[in-house]
Structures are given as structure tokens and as C-alpha cells.
Amino acid sequence: MLELSRQEQARRRYQAQRPGWRPAGDVLNALLEPLLLPYVRALDAGCGRWGVLGRFQERVGLAVGVDADFPSLRENRILPLRAQARLEALPFPAWTFDLVLCTWVIEHLPEPQLAFREIARVLKPGGRLLLLTPNARHPLIALGRAIPSRWRRPLVRRLYGRAPQDIFPTFYRANTPGALRRLLRAAGLQEIAWFEIEDPTYLAFHPLLFALAALYERLTAWRPLRGWRLHLVGLFARPLVDPPSPE
């Protein structure tokens, strides 16, 4: 099993090899930091048992979590304000939130376009959506999708130690750089920042696997291959003035 401490050690080794590299979580936190303000009303869209917002709820005016999975919400002891709902039908009025966080969720959405429209609806003008999701183009993700579901769950449990209740169906219907950015634009959101981030440490089970993964990630430094990196991080905004509807 790849323990978190072992993966963190692999990240430090890779960072020493690639000065300036930051894992996706660090990039996300750097984008999030200036958005954590006392007046901000924030939504963790797909908060599950943990989410991201719970770590920062004391720094915003309002922190709310939403998730479709009731057992996950019931066991979430971090966010006091939680609601059960699908992201495709959020139970909030328009213009409610200044910030929506969506981490490790988009790959699980059966109807991502509807979810993005709902997120845009509940964002105030000028509000931000900050997201992190895997890239379906990456060979590791493509291999995982090719494995039959009856084998995939036991394999994930064995390799990464993930509890059965934390393994959910995946669809990857918006999980390429082009598709994700296109769908977010169609929902009326403007791109502020975009990153395609390498990370070979998910194969740090064995030195040879890690070396091969690191070699692949170095190849993605070539611009035409950057869209094949493992993680996608994006910051998007609802415009201050919505564009006119087409006649």
C-alpha cells in the first residue's frame, strides 16, 4: 500500500529533481489563499467527509458544504453547515456565494454541464470557482478506467488504502483540458488561471515505477504534451455583468 508519508517523501525527491515544481494541492492553496476573506460566503461543492473548506472556515464569513452522499455528510464533523444535494440541483438562491470550491469531484459528475450552470447560478457576480480534478488523458487515469469496476475498487483499496465508503463511481465526462474549459465557458464562467500539473508520486510503490513515471512527467514539459499531465487546477469567475443572451 502507498502510505501518505511515503508519497510525501517521493514528492520531496521529485521536487529536488524538478526545482520550482509544486504538487496540485500546493497550487490550489496558493490560489485559495487570497480568496479567504472575512466577508466571503463559501461553498464546498462535494465536501464529502473532509473536503477542503473545513480547514479554512474560520477565515471566511460563511462556510457551507454540500454533497449528494448522505453518509459522508453525516460523518463530516468539520463543517457545521451541510446540505444533501446533487451539484446539478443546488438548494441555494442565485447570487449566494462569493467562492465555490470543487476538489476531486468533477470526475464523479454524471452531468457536469448542469453542475457548472448551477455553480455559476449560485455565484455572485465576480464570485470565484476554484477546482482540482484528474486529467482523463493521463495514462494512469486511462489505465484505471480500463480496469473493470469489479476489480477497480479492490485494487484502489489495496494500492492506496482507501476505505470502501470513500470510493465512488467515476464518469470523467468533463476531464480533459479542452472539454473542461469549454464547458465552464459555456456555463458563463471566465477563466482566471489554469494549470496542468505533473505528479509521478502515485506510482511510488517501487523505485522503478517511480522512475518511469518521473520520466513520463518530464516528457510533458514539451508544450504539445502538457495537456497530458495528471492534474488540472483552474480558477474561474462569474463576470460582473453577465453576457447578453443570444436572440
From TrEMBL:
Q: Which UniProt keywords apply?
A: Methyltransferase, Transferase
GO BP, sorted A to Z: methylation
GO function term, MF aspect, one:
S-adenosylmethionine-dependent methyltransferase activity
Stored InterPro entries: Methyltransf_11 (IPR013216), SAM-dependent_MTases_sf (IPR029063)
Please verify whether the record's keywords include Methyltransferase: yes
Q: Which CDD domains match?
A: AdoMet_MTases
- Domain Methyltransferase type residue range list: 43-130
Q: Write down the PANTHER family for this protein, in alphabetical order.
A: METHYLTRANSFERASE, RHODANESE DOMAIN-CONTAINING PROTEIN
Q: What is this protein called?
A: 2-polyprenyl-3-methyl-5-hydroxy-6-metoxy-1,4-benzoquinol methylase
What species does this protein belong to?
A: Thermoflexus hugenholtzii JAD2
